[in-house]
Amino acid sequence: MKKLFLIATIVLLSSVVFAELSEQTENEVSIMSYENGAKVRLLQLEKSVTRNIVRADAIITEVDNMDMDTSNLSSILEELKLVKEEIQNVDLNQNKEDLIKNFVDLKDDAIDLTKDFREALHLMLTTEQLSELKIVANSTEINQINERIRLAVREYNALRLESMISNKAATNKIRNGEMDTTKIKSTIKEQIRNESAENKDAILQKLGKMKNERNRFVTAAVGKAIQNQLERKEQRLQNRLEDIRSAQTALRTRIQNRINTVSATTTVTLRAQAVNSAGGGNE
Amino acid sequence: MKRIILLAVLLSMVALASGCVQQEAATTTTTSTISADNLDSTVNELVEDIVAEDETIDVGEIV
After folding, report:
1. pLDDT digits (tens, 9 = 90+) for A62-103
2. What is the pLDDT of residues A197-217, one digit of tens each?
3. Contacts of residue B36 in chain A, CB cutoff 8 Å?
4. Nearest CA of chain A to the CA of B31: how many Å?
5. Which among A37, A110, A135 has CB closest to B59?
6. Which of B38, B47, B53 is the closest to A204 by Cβ?
7. How far is A210 from B43, CA to CA, in rounded Å?
8. Is some CB atom of chain B closer than 8 A to the CB atom of A107?
9. A 53-82: CB under 8 A from B
């Protein structure tokens, strides 16, 4: 038994020590070292979570109509909604390393909950039932987030171009949504290619410094983001539990107050009726 | 005999100087090529940070 416990502890510890971010997440956080990069990534994450919330909501209604118990699915959905709220409440003014930690943690939660929902659903429905589910493709809310993402990405790209070359016309076009990524990239490359040899040296100095600072920052921030991930997760879950308890207490108090009001009104009405009846009897 | 030695010394100095010039030219060419390559790779790496408006974060599918 002791040996088993020891092996389990070693496995757990090694998984923590060798924890790393997926290549995809590392690429995503790399732009968070730049101005507006965190805003773009958090909005994109909010959109993905919202999309899954909208879909899960519709699926629960369908499953409910099949006379099945949807309480487990609903509880996962409720937590996914809490994750969305937390994404919306991330303070963009905090330091970039903390922003990266927030992004990594909340993305991780969103992935876990989506997986939990999917697995729970697959246990409840047959393959045929699953294939018949209507998947909601869009919603007003998703469209609104799309619009915010568009504006944030344009601003971010304009700032990126400005940091590399000076081209007012191009930055204006980016902000107006008149340049796609391919065009932006080729504009930057072409303008640098056409610079004089002397200017190219200065540009190389500037961009080389920018690249090194970015890489150093990302390596350090990713290193910090993967440290204590489990402890941070435990803390987040505790906070959510506390929020639910507070919300339940507030709801209980509210309902109790309403009961008191209704009860008082009923008493007054009954007394009035009794008085009226007595008065009527006297007449 | 002295003249021959002097001539030989002079010739070797000329050869050495010419070698140095060639070496210098080669070094300059290499440096500028490295700079150009560095600039290209740096620019290529940095422009990859440009983001597409329809880029998404994958958190998995609900079904």
Report:
1. 999 999 999 999 999 999 999 999 999 999 999 999 999 999
2. 989 999 999 999 999 999 999
3. 200
4. 11
5. A110
6. B38
7. 10
8. yes
9. 55-56, 59
Residues of chain A contacting residue B59, judged by C-beta atoms under 8 Å apart:
45, 48-49, 52, 107, 110-111, 114
User: One-letter amino acid identity for A222?
Assistant: V
Q: Find the CB nearest A160 among B36, B49, B60.
A: B49
- Interface confidence (ipTM) of the complex: 0.80
Tally: H helices and E strands in chain B: 1, 0
B39 touches chain A (CB under 8 A): yes
CB A214 within 8 A of CB A222: no
Q: Are A34 and B49 in contact (CB under 8 A)?
A: yes
**3-class secondary-structure state, position A22:** coil
A163-174 residues labelled b (16+ CB within 10 A) or e (exposed): ebbeeeebbebb
Residues B35 and B32: their CA atoms lie apart, in Å, by 5
Residues 6+ apart with CB under 8 A from A154: A174, A175, A176, A177, B53
Question: What integer pLDDT is reported at residue A182 of this predicted model?
Answer: 96
CB atoms within 10 A of CB A206: 13
Whether the CB-CB separation of A99 and A90 falls below 8 Å is answered with yes
Of B39, B58, B44, B9, the closest CA to residue A51 belongs to B58
Contact check, Cβ <8 Å, B51/A107: no
Backbone angles phi, psi at B26, to 5 degrees: -65, -45
Distance, in angstroms, between B25 CA and closest chain A CA?
17
